[in-house]
Amino acid sequence: MTLSQQIIWGSFYLGICFLIEIMLLTWCVLVIRKLVEKWEVRSTILATAGPISVALLFIVLTHTVQVWIWAIVWVMGDVLPDWNSALYFSLVTFTTLGYGDIVLGEGLRIFGAFASVTGLLAFGLSTAFLVALMTRVFEERFLN
Asked: Which sequence ranges are marked TM in the entry (predicted)?
């Protein structure tokens, strides 16, 4: 893959992952809004811990979907030989851990770096989302 192809395709898959994250986090907000109405009448603990728990489940789901997208790219592109290697490489790259036991050839290094940029941005967005949610939950529960 040429450098420009790596940048174009890397940006494309990063964009898909980012759209998925935005859609799932938006869906998370809608789910939490519906559930909070039910939880508020039951207990303060449930009304506080419930939204945070739901958000964490959505965040884990969101990141899992993104890791799978990159694994599909590696397998379908005949970059890695099997699903086990592809999922492992995707997860290690997405988390920016990068053990180095599986490496891409020169023609895919920039493209592969987009998988780690995807993870870096996803973790940043998820962290910001969780902090904003927790701030709002704690303000509504304990400061009013």
From this structure: 12-32, 44-73, 85-104, 111-134
Coil, strand or helix at 101: coil
- Total domains in the chain come to 1
Structural domain boundaries enclosing 116: 3-142
Structure tokens at 2: 């040429």
32-78 pLDDT per residue, tens:
999 988 887 777 788 888 999 999 999 999 999 999 999 999 999 99
**CATH number (domain holding residue 97):** 1.10.287
Which among 111, 115, 83, 77 is positioned nearest to 96, based on CA atoms?
115
Q: Could you give the C-alpha distances from 19 to 26, 69, 115, 122, in angstroms and in order?
A: 10, 12, 15, 10
Whole-prediction pTM: 0.90
